[in-house]
Design brief:
8% of the residues lie in helices and 48% in strands. The protein has helices spanning 71-78, 144-147; strands spanning 3-11, 21-31, 36-43, 46-55, 61-69, 86-95, 98-105, 113-118, 132-135.
Length: 155
């Protein structure tokens, strides 16, 4: 079983100048229940379907399965997704031997910028860049599947 371990933070400063790569992401959810979130996404020029399980008590790890599918199939599946589409640009920012993925949201989530870093264990120590703000790991309101239901503009 594949397990994703990551920590999530708000972003409080300038990070774009350090980004190595960026890409636009559009995604929708076929199922957003916490026990089995199923999303489809267009990431750059590729399509994906992803299934995520319920998180650990800390919220830092959970089951994840992902498969590449044709963009045309993602577009078809977006038509039957739950209401609310996530639109964002993802920046890959290297720091301290790790890569932080920083998502800058648009639309109903405009103004929200969140960084995630994947780790090999929940207690792995890592250096934090100065632009990293408050940790929000495990706070479900920052999950993309929740941002489509209760977008940032409503907070």
């Amino acid at each position: 079983m594949a397990k994703e371990i990551e920590r999530k933070f708000l972003v409080k400063g300038e990070f774009k100048s350090a980004a190595e790569k960026q890409m636009r992401i559009t995604q929708g959810y076929l199922s957003s229940v916490p026990e089995r979130t199923v999303r489809v996404r267009i990431k750059g020029e590729k399509g994906f379907i992803t299934i995520k399980g319920i998180g650990s008590s800390s919220g830092a790890s959970r089951y994840e399965w992902e498969k590449e599918i044709p963009v045309s199939e993602v577009n078809e599946l977006l038509e039957i997704c739950e209401p609310g589409v996530i639109d964002k640009t993802r920046y890959q920012v290297p720091f301290g031997g790790l890569t932080f993925e920083v998502d800058e949201f648009y639309g109903d989530n405009d103004g929200l910028t969140v960084a995630e870093v994947e780790l090999s264990s929940e207690d792995q120590a890592f250096d934090k860049p100065e632009w990293l703000g408050e940790e929000v790991t495990g706070d479900v309101k920052y999950y993309n599947s929740m941002l489509m239901k209760n977008p940032y503009k409503n907070w």
